[in-house]
Amino acid sequence: MKKAVILLSGGLDSSTVAAIAKANGKELFALTIDYNQRHQIELEAARKVAHFLEIQHQVVLPVDLRIFGGSSLTDNLAVPKNVPSEQIGRSVPNTYVPARNTVFLSLALAYAETVGAGEIYLGISAVDSSGYPDSRPEFLKAFEHLANVATKLGYESARSGQPGFRIHAPLLHWSKAETIRRGLELGFDYGLTWTCYDPEPGGLSCGQCESCTLRRQGFREAGVSDPLAYE
Fold first, then answer.
1. Is the dihedral of CA 125, 94, 33, 194 positive or negative?
2. Which of 44, 53, 139, 144 sees the fewest Cβ atoms within 10 Å?
3. Model-level pTM?
């Protein structure tokens, strides 16, 4: 089995990617980032997903991005609600956390070198997304190049002519419906995941943020019921 690090947030996308990587025979090392986000419920979801998928190695790493702020997920800003689905992704919303995927992938890269993994999986998509700049193919290609010039593994691989680090984003060109169907084919339980950016005090999903809108639309298009409850 080849070792691989999975950035596991507890959300629908990263959980599906974890299921795909496991089905591909990877020995997974899950990295979950507690960046002091407003939707802390997803941290418990990440633990449940790791247990369900029998991932033996999981690190929950605290990195307090509230010190910087700059996002409605890390600052006292209102999360956008009731944005029409056809307008989602046309501009970068304030739920974008500055350089989040760059920071997270850098930490995953350090973890991968430590455990001897040559692959990193993450659940980003350029389709059915909020239009974040760090969820595009150009970003992934650039970061993979960086990984192979900034690490011992990349340096030694280049000298020996062997493959270096690989960054995998299986959902990059998939819709939410395609993602959900694949997860269900693999027997994954989406009731374990968390998606909402702005949970209600009772712990229910708001049903109105962009993340909830995309998730609900995905389940409708996939023709299956969403197991989560909404306010």
1. negative
2. 44
3. 0.95
